[in-house]
């Protein structure tokens, strides 16, 4: 691409404004060729196509030369339209949240062996999503008098109770009063809703992942206080 830019720049007429237009078009084309310029949105791709189109529409704009830039921008537009979901996984989000370090650390200690299957927070599900009600570090500190004497099996159940797998959409989930966890316990969704003095209720905004949602909550769920879901 560098050779083509130098070689074809000699064909551009001497007018400064046209040179600027052609130079911009080729810079964009080169950026696309090296994948330096990410196609983050359809809007940005359309803007780039409009810019390179200025050179192509010029009456002395060397259509054959400008078409190379237009083709490159067209590829960028196609890439933006077909770009895969770039959201992180739930596990990746947990790794980035400073107030969830305790939950993340204890979750990572869980093995795949045990009474309750450990959900894979890095795996994307086909027709459902994972919902994690992740207690803050302070929540675990406050709950420590009730949790510090738990054996390994009870602690495992407590952690996995904070994860649910559902086919509901986010809107459907937030409209419900409860959800069934991966330990088959009924978890109240009042945890993700804040009630104010004027009695208005606001649902907490979740962290969006490509395989589900994380709701940061201020309470540790104790399995012995929850009801078993009836099939």
Write a structural description:
The protein has helices at 2-9, 16-33, 42-57, 63-81, 90-96, 101-109, 137-147, 152-161, 170-175; strands at residues 129-135, 163-166, 178-180, 186-188, 193-195, 201-203, 207-209, 212-217. It is 45% helix and 14% strand. Helix 2 crosses helix 3. It is elongated, with a radius of gyration of 27 Å. A hairpin with a 2-residue loop joins strand 7 (207-209) and strand 8. The chain is α+β, with helices and mostly antiparallel strands and 231 residues long. The chain has nine helices and eight strands. Strands 2-1-8-7 form a four-stranded mixed beta sheet. Strands 3-4 form a two-stranded antiparallel ribbon.
List descriptors.
single chain; 231 residues; alpha+beta; 4-stranded mixed β-sheet; disordered N terminus
Overall strand count: 8
Give the low-pLDDT segments. Answer: 1-14, 33-39
**Helix content bin:** 40-55%
The value of Rg in angstroms is 27 Å
Which geometry do the CA atoms define? elongated
Main beta sheet: 4 strands, mixed
For the record, give the distance between the C-alpha atoms at the N and C termini, rounded to a whole number. Answer: 63 Å
Strand order of the largest sheet: 2-1-8-7
Order of helices and strands: HHHHHHEHHEHEEEEEE
In short:
With 231 residues, the chain is of the alpha+beta class. Helix content is 45%, strand content 14%.
